[in-house]
Structure formats: structure tokens, C-alpha cells
TrEMBL record:
It comes from Neopusillimonas maritima. Residues 4-250 form the ABC transporter domain. One of its GO terms (molecular function) is ATP binding. This is ABC transporter ATP-binding protein. It comes from the Bacteria. The keyword Hydrolase does not apply. Keywords: ATP-binding, Cell membrane, Membrane, Nucleotide-binding, Transport. SUPFAM superfamilies: P-loop containing nucleoside triphosphate hydrolases.
Length: 264
């Protein structure tokens, strides 16, 4: 039983008509649907620190949305810790913590209230000890009673990380968690996440900071136009492509798919 599994997953978003309010007018053509994922099969084992890389629009966020139950696959199946994300969605979601790209927050609550509310979604009502530990490790302990709308963008992103961790999920997905944040947050975040990984948590990371992926991830998949075009250990990818570093290897693969055939 893998931590994360996708089996021949495809996702096609339905076409939008070119007309006003979804109505086609004479002479207008129906726009084709958009295929975000195309027959993707992938497994991430328990305890891995796994990197999912690709350019904007490659399908990374769509894959994460399917795993999190926010989108349904057009075909194929996905599971979290052996729980199908459709037929056993409650356990699948309980096993997963997701840090999204977007800054989403409720402006009416303090940081601590936000984390207590998130705990309640999972039936955890006496969770303050773990909340205190998360706040400390993410450098939020002095902001615990601050209103969310009063925080800086970097502090709000720390709260998103805390929300994903508050129910102690065995699998954590970080969707570009350090985009636009300062060096201090990046260092604090990676120290804490690396510690959780050593304690047995599975981590899936998407990032455009490829030096982060190279330093942290034991195995990496690269997506392009909804397909996996590379899948191997970080060391093996560098050796096979011949790049000086992961960024160099990434550029070579994205510009020349024949540089490396996808492997299982």
C-alpha cells in the first residue's frame, strides 16, 4: 500500500462555448476541452520526500486537486494511503494535508482560532499542545492571538502550512509553499518539514525553486503537458541527463523529451 497512488489518471476539463453566457451564436465554434492530465500513473511510497516538477500549466495542481478530492478524474483512479479518493473519501482526506498555492484565509479569526477550527473539521477538540508545537516550529508563536488579516503575506503562508499539519496527516502535499516568501520562512519551513519526514511523514513537493527539490527530494517526477516525461531518483536523473544540477537537467528534459524516457 503506497502513500499516494495514481493509476492511469486523465483529466479533461469540459469545453466552454465562445458565446455570451455559454450560448453559441451563429458562426461561433465550440471550444475544445482542455486535457490537464493524460494517462498518468505514479506511486509515492511511505516516508518518501518526493518532488513533482513541471512548468506552469503542466498539470501539477490538477493532480493535487484530484488527490485532495477537489477535482474528479475523467478516467483512472487515485488513492491516499490505500483509500480511494472517491469511494473512501473521508479516510483519504483525513490522511492528507495540503498547503495550496493561494493565500486563502478567514479574516475574522485569530491564528489560534483558525487552527482550532481546522482541528474541529477532523474531530479534534483538545489539540492545543500540538497547535502550540506547530506555532513554535513555524515561528508563529508570537502571532497566535493576532487576527489573520493583520498578518503579512509570509505569515499568512505559515498559517496555511500550520493548517495542513494540524490533524497530523501521514501525507503532506506542499504546492509551491515558498513562492514569494523570505529566506527566513524558507529555512524555518524546511527544517520543520524535514524533521516531519524523518519521523515518517510522506512529503510531496511542487516548487519552481529547483535547488530546493535537489536538496530535499529523494525521487522526482517531471510533468509536461499533462504527461510524466521523467521519473527517477534525483541522483539518477542528473547522471542520465548529464546536467550540472537539477535546473540544468530540468531545462534539457523540458526542451527535449527524448533526453530522458519516463521510467516507472
Amino acid at each position: 500500500m503506497s502513500a499516494l497512488s495514481l493509476n492511469h489518471v486523465s483529466k479533461v476539463y469540459p469545453p466552454r462555448s465562445a458565446g455570451w453566457r455559454g450560448l453559441l451564436r451563429p458562426g461561433m465554434k465550440q471550444r475544445p476541452g482542455f486535457q490537464a492530465l493524460n494517462d498518468v500513473s505514479l506511486t509515492v511510497e511511505h516516508g518518501e520526500f518526493f518532488g513533482l516538477l513541471g512548468p506552469n500549466g503542466a498539470g501539477k495542481t490538477t493532480m493535487i486537486s484530484i488527490l485532495a478530492g477537489l477535482a474528479h478524474a475523467t478516467s483512472g483512479s487515485a488513492s491516499v494511503c490505500g483509500h480511494d479518493v472517491v469511494t473512501d473519501y473521508k479516510e483519504a482526506r483525513r490522511s492528507l494535508g495540503v498547503v495550496p498555492q493561494e493565500l486563502v484565509y478567514d479574516p475574522f479569526f485569530t491564528v489560534r482560532e483558525t487552527l482550532r477550527l481546522q482541528s474541529g473539521y477532523f474531530g479534534l477538540h483538545n489539540n492545543d499542545d500540538w497547535i502550540d508545537e506547530i506555532l513554535y516550529n513555524l515561528g508563529l508563536d508570537d502571532k497566535a492571538n493576532a487576527n489573520m488579516r493583520a498578518l503579512s503575506g509570509g505569515m499568512k503562508r505559515r498559517v496555511l502550512v500550520a493548517q495542513a499539519l494540524v490533524h497530523r496527516p501521514p501525507v503532506i502535499i506542499l504546492d509551491e509553499p515558498t513562492a514569494g516568501v523570505d529566506v527566513d520562512l524558507r529555512r524555518t519551513l524546511w527544517e520543520f518539514i524535514s524533521r516531519l519526514n524523518k519521523e515518517g511523514h510522506t512529503i510531496l513537493l511542487t516548487t519552481h525553486y529547483l535547488e530546493e527539490a535537489e536538496a530535499l527530494c529523494g525521487r522526482i517526477a517531471m510533468l509536461k503537458s499533462g504527461r510524466i516525461v521523467a521519473l527517477d531518483t534525483t541522483e539518477a536523473l542528473l547522471a542520465r541527463v548529464g546536467g550540472a544540477d537539477l535546473e540544468d537537467a530540468f531545462v534539457r528534459i523540458m526542451h527535449n523529451e527524448d533526453a530522458l524516457k519516463a521510467s516507472a
